[in-house]
Design brief:
This protein has 32 helices and no strands. It has about 575 residues and is mostly helical.
């Protein structure tokens, strides 16, 4: 009996002390809130009783208001949401809390966007924080598709692909008419090569947007280079197979799929019935891609007559002539004709640097240097970060005697342009490449070039370009050439060989790779290895000019007598 009495009194005391603490805590909290001493109110909150905070409506509303006034998001969200779930709220309180939750939702989404853009968060912390705030908003109301769209955007920003797809489907279920959001997400997956997700979204929207679904399936097949599949979808986009748009797209698909002759025959047949020039444009382009430059020139010339104010047709006609007659061959009268077409394009539109470049190249080929130099200067003025333009001017000046000072001055101009660009973007491989080659021009004609700091800088920046873009064939070829020119330094020889071996691994269909390895081992006196690459060159690329060059070298009287090269007739038998 005594024990029961003790337990009863003990419970009574605990209840009384808790009640006293409860009243004291709430009184202090209320007083601090009314005094707008929010810092003190927050202090009482952290020091207070959690059980009271989770059960007492008055305490919940006060602390939610305190944190709201202090600019917080998470605590107001939690306690306002907890208060809304209770039935004791008045209509006025309910309305006020609902309004504040709407404001907090906007703020939470803004905070999430700021976190995504911020550089002050580590990747994992950043994604967790950004997504946390949006999920807070969704926890208040799961029936707003825009909230899920914000969540999808945040997840895409951190490459959380599976979850983004799931949340987009939830949003679509609430509102299936969100084609803009679907397209945005499909673009994201396409850019990242996640084509399976793209097709899943297409299936999700096709009932409401059948035409857009077909368009996206078509464009995705193009991205995947599945041209036969794209062709089967084309009729869904253009039900009339005699429509010009259908014909031109089909021809382009056939061309891209390697069926160029079929594309040309198809276009020629259809163009007999079509009086407009749209099919003529496609024919010109298809002939050009098929390397039938004579026919391309014919159709581009026709387009010059039909649309005489369009500079593109003059430019394309000039390109066709250059391709038709060998392009880089000097003293061909056709180059003068090509130059005239490029100059006509310039007269109609003087804003394209490439028009000036090709006009200069053509005049240079025709030995009209007084016309060529001002044109290439104009191209450089318009685009100072195109190294091809500097190379053309170098070639122009080199054709004339005693112009090395001008060449070096141009090189210094190029160095300044590329150095500025590379300093601003040190991850850009092309800027590093241009800077390296600019140092080469800047030291043109100087003796003992590789003892000069500028030529060491050339190697440095060519190495940097390849470091930034390690599978670029042109960069590796230029660097190998410069190692070759650097003399008999064993370090340079070893690097040169490693580049050729890398190219052989990555670019086995490039004739130049086999030619350079044949030459390298020949110069090193390793004739057996040299012969192996010579044989492969002849076998794989019998018509290539490098092959003919190698054959002429090994079959001259001196080489044939000194070295035991495999005869060409024997190579061709095998």
């Amino acid at each position: 009996m005594m024990n029961i009495m003790r337990l009863f009194l003990s419970g009574l005391l605990l209840s009384f002390s808790f009640s006293c603490f409860s009243n004291s805590f709430l009184d202090s909290l209320v007083q601090a809130y009314h005094e707008k001493n929010y810092e003190k109110a927050i202090y009482y909150f952290y020091k207070g009783n959690i059980k009271i905070m989770n059960t007492d409506l008055k305490a919940q509303l006060i602390i939610a208001n305190v944190f709201y006034e202090e600019g917080h998001v998470s605590y107001p969200f939690y306690y306002y949401q907890t208060a809304l779930n209770r039935e004791q709220l008045s209509k006025k309180e309910n309305k006020l809390i609902t309004k504040r939750i709407d404001i907090l939702s906007v703020k939470a989404i803004e905070i999430s966007s700021c976190i995504i853009k911020s550089d002050s968060f580590k990747s994992k912390q950043k994604s967790d924080s950004a997504i946390y705030y949006i999920k807070k908003v969704i926890s208040i109301d799961r029936n707003v598709p825009e909230f899920f769209n914000k969540l999808v955007s945040a997840e895409c920003a951190f490459n959380i692909d599976d979850s983004a797809f799931v949340h987009h489907l939830i949003s679509l279920k609430m509102n299936p008419f969100q084609i803009d959001e679907s397209e945005k997400l499909m673009d994201y997956y396409t850019q990242n090569g996640k084509y399976d997700f793209v097709y899943k979204i297409i299936n999700a929207i096709k009932s409401e947007y059948p035409h857009e679904a077909s368009r996206y399936r078509y464009n995705t097949k193009l991205k995947e280079e599945k041209y036969v599949d794209a062709l089967s979808i084309l009729i869904e986009l253009y039900p009339d197979s005699n429509q010009v748009e259908y014909i031109t797209r089909k021809a382009q698909l056939l061309t891209d799929g390697g069926k160029k002759n079929e594309a040309i025959n198809y276009l020629e047949e259809k163009s007999k019935k079509e009086k407009g020039i749209e099919l003529k444009k496609q024919l010109a382009s298809t002939y050009y891609e098929s390397e039938d430059y004579e026919q391309a020139q014919k159709y581009y010339s026709l387009l010059c007559e039909k649309e005489s104010e369009n500079p593109v047709w003059y430019y394309k006609t000039g390109l066709s002539i250059r391709k038709k007659y060998g392009g880089w061959t000097h003293n061909k009268p056709e180059m003068e004709v090509a130059a005239q077409y490029f100059e006509k394009a310039i007269a109609l539109d003087s804003t394209h640097a490439w028009y000036y470049y090709y006009a200069s190249v053509s005049n240079h080929n025709w030995m009209q240097l007084e016309r060529a130099l001002p044109q290439i200067d104009k191209a450089i003025q318009m685009d100072s970060l195109n190294f091809d333009f500097y190379l053309e001017k170098w070639s122009n000046l080199r054709t004339n005697n005693d112009r090395n000072n001008e060449i070096r001055a141009m090189g210094r101009q190029a160095v300044a342009a590329f150095a500025k660009a590379f300093n601003q973007d040190p991850t850009n491989a092309y800027y590093a490449y241009g800077l390296g080659k600019s140092y080469w021009i800047a030291t043109w004609g100087l003796n003992k070039a590789y003892e000069k700091p500028e030529r060491k800088l050339e190697l440095k920046y060519l190495e940097k370009a390849l470091e930034l873009d390690s599978i670029n064939y042109d960069y590796s070829s230029e660097l190998a050439t410069e190692y070759c020119c650097a003399g008999d330094n064993s370090k340079h020889k070893a690097r040169q060989l490693s580049l050729y071996q890398m190219q052989l691994r990555l670019f086995p269909e490039e004739a130049e790779v086999y030619y350079h390895l044949y030459r390298f081992y020949k110069e090193e006196g390793q004739y057996q290895k040299s012969n192996q690459f010579y044989v492969q060159l002849v076998q794989k690329f019998p018509e290539h000019w490098r092959t003919q060059q190698a054959i002429e070298a090994v079959t001259d009287r001196y080489n044939r007598k000194k070295y035991n090269w495999t005869p060409v007739s024997e190579i061709k038998k095998n």
